[in-house]
């Protein structure tokens, strides 16, 4: 059962040293009780207290880490069912399935979708390598080929224990998911997964058998697992994903608190439009690894944008780091254009500046992650903040003394002229869409 803040507080060292990032041990305890920070953030907890608190205060859903060390993927660890309750912490990931019959064509297509959207790389993160009876040697070769496809994590979709053992042995350094434990083979599959220290995927036909198999594996000491939603129908898969997530988070049933795998390539084979529609459903409702037959730009644009919307923390402003961003080959002699650190503003403005083709240093000032007018009205973007930023962060690094400010804060020009007498303050456009013409005329 979840502990209260007071119960946790009784076990803290009560030093109020602030090393955990909170002003008092009581404030820290309250956050731990709410599941917002791990108990390990306090470096002064005794081993006994840690042992008794770690399990009780851990999120009811396990956090599972898979994939190559240089591109580790974290899944699970959720504490709430809905984004509006608090925040969803680990976004779902998309996989494309490959078999021996289509490997060359699919592996060549997977890297095609790879782009950046609001600071996040959008690409196919997992390759689901499906065993189709070709034999251990051929499957191992297929797995190695998939592993060579540019830093993606692997799901080994194989239920034959001997084949699984050979495949895991070949790529265990890349920490694949061994997705093949069934009610019939789970003991042997568990031995393979534990020996190679990889995550195990549990497959079963219905919710009761999934729960029983997870429980049996936990009893055997494995808490590093995924469960597969049934592939009999989309309705059945969604029911299992929702019921097990609710059971873990609302009822505190930790034994079903594992991330899920949803194989849409098996649920709607050959129907790419249906797979894209279902991928949207499972992005919203509790798919952790969503497997599709293909990922082209058309579904990717919609699915990755949806995912980014759902998994962006609504309590944290979307910010980019303040600083100087040279665009179009800008040097210290290029003109400067200033805007705020709100991520959407940054991406829109930098995109338009890049489209203009004019070398320019984009200056991003700390405005608390607000848009231009909001920051100005909140006092976060003023002649004082801009001149301080220019004096302390910019003028030693940039020789050019022309500064373009957003047209929406044209009112600041007079004050800036006074505070930055060496600079030529130019009022820019009110809207980003006007930037290309403005910069071309300006150059
Ligand atoms: S680091 Fe530990 S001892 Fe220090 S304030 Fe935080 S909880 Fe208290």
Average pLDDT metric: 94
Question: Any ligands, ions or cofactors bound here, and which?
Answer: iron/sulfur cluster
The low-confidence parts are none
Shape: globular
Q: Please name the CATH topology of the largest domain.
A: TIM Barrel
- Please name the CATH architecture of the largest domain: Alpha-Beta Barrel
- C-alpha termini separation: 66 Å
Largest β-sheet summary: 8 strands, parallel, barrel
Number of strands: 17
The neighbouring-strand order within the major sheet is 3-6-7-8-9-10-11-12
Structural class: alpha/beta
* Rg calc: 26 Å
Give a verbal description of the structure.
It is a single chain. This protein is an alpha/beta fold and about 450 residues long. It has 3 domains: about 5-55, 3-methyladenine DNA Glycosylase II, Chain A, domain 3; about 65-310, TIM Barrel (Alpha-Beta Barrel), CATH 3.20.20; about 325-440, Rossmann fold (3-Layer(aba) Sandwich). The chain has helices at about 5-10, 25-35, 45-55, 105-110, 135-145, 160-170, 185-195, 205-220, 235-250, 265, 270-285, 295-310, 345-355, 370-375, 385-395, 415-420, 435-440; strands spanning about 65, 75, 95-100, 115, 120-125, 125-130, 155, 175-180, 200, 225-230, 260-265, 290, 325, 335-340, 360-365, 400-405, 425. The strands form 4 sheets. The chain has an 8-stranded parallel beta barrel, surrounded by 6 helices. It has a 5-stranded mixed beta sheet with strand order 13-15-14-16-17, sandwiched between helices. It starts with a helix and ends with a helix. About 40% of the residues are buried. The structure holds iron/sulfur cluster. Iron/sulfur cluster binds next to helix 2.
């Amino acid at each position: 059962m979840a502990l209260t803040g007071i119960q946790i507080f009784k076990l803290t060292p009560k030093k109020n040293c602030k090393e955990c990032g909170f002003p008092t041990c009581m404030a820290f305890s309250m956050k731990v009780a709410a599941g917002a920070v791990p108990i390990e953030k306090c470096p002064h907890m005794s081993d006994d207290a840690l042992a008794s608190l770690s399990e009780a205060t851990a999120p009811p859903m396990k956090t599972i880490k898979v994939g190559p060390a240089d591109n580790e993927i974290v899944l699970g660890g959720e504490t709430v069912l809905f984004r509006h309750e608090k925040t969803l912490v680990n976004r779902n990931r998309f996989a494309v399935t490959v078999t021996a019959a289509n490997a060359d064509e699919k592996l060549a297509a997977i890297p095609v979708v790879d782009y950046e959207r609001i600071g996040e790389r959008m690409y196919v993160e997992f390759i689901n390598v499906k065993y189709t009876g070709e034999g251990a040697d051929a499957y191992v070769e297929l797995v190695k080929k998939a592993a060579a496809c540019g830093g993606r994590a692997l799901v080994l979709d194989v239920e034959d224990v001997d084949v699984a053992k050979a495949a895991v042995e070949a790529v265990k350094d890349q920490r694949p998911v061994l997705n093949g434990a069934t009610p019939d083979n789970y003991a042997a599959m568990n031995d393979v997964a534990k020996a190679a220290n990889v995550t195990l995927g549990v497959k079963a036909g219905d919710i009761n058998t999934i729960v029983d198999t997870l429980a049996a594996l936990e009893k055997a000491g494995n808490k590093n697992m995924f469960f597969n939603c049934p592939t009999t129908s989309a309705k059945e898969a969604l029911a299992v994903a929702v019921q097990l997530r609710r059971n873990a988070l609302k009822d505190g049933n930790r034994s079903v608190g594992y991330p899920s795998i949803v194989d849409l390539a098996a649920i709607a084979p050959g129907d790419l439009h249906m797979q894209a529609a279902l991928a949207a459903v499972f992005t919203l409702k509790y798919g952790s690894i969503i497997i599709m037959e293909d990922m082209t730009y058309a579904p990717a644009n919609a699915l990755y944008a949806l995912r980014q919307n759902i998994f962006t923390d609504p309590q944290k402003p979307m910010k980019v780091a303040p600083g100087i961003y040279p665009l179009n080959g800008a040097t210290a002699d290029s003109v400067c254009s200033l805007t705020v650190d709100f991520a959407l503003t940054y991406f829109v403005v930098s995109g338009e500046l890049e489209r203009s083709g004019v070398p320019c240093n984009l200056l991003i000032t700390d405005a608390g992650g607000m848009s231009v007018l909001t920051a100005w009205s909140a006092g976060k973007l003023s002649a004082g903040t801009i001149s301080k930023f220019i004096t302390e962060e910019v003028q030693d690094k940039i020789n050019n003394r022309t500064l373009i400010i957003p047209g929406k804060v044209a009112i600041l020009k007079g004050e800036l002229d006074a505070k930055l007498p060496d600079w030529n303050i130019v009022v820019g456009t009110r809207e980003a869409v006007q930037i290309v013409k403005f910069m071309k005329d300006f150059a």
